Structure prediction request, 132 residues.
Amino acid sequence: MDLIRRFSPDKLHYEYGLDGIRTFPWDGIAPPFGGGYCIVRPGDDTLAHVNSPADEDEMFIAIQGEAEVVLDGKSSRIKQGDIVMIPRGMDHFIRNSTDTPFHFYTVWWSSEDVARYQAAEAARTAPALETA
Prediction:
């Protein structure tokens, strides 16, 4: 199993108003969360949205550049190293009004993600328990 996935700009795809790469699926790994590396182009806004499913929480980790994160209409500047928590049900987007790309990593999770993980873990460990 490959444990390192190298970054390549040609693997980016445009979604939610940004260029991104989803971390998962990853062969052999099924975590209770999703994630992705994201780049907001200079002068762009990401798509304003509320996460779905309704119990999905999300976190942004700023990696490079500066931008504004808008949470339920309230704007805050963020830069490298800043972490943003987006509770379920909160409208949010990022505005990059600078002339350089803004890079961030996002992690999201919901009860659906946790249930899928628990089912995969139960299936993975069940044969080991039966043979013990």
Q: What stands out?
A: The radius of gyration is 17 Å. The CA atoms of residues 1 and 29 lie 10 Å apart. The helical segments are 111-131.
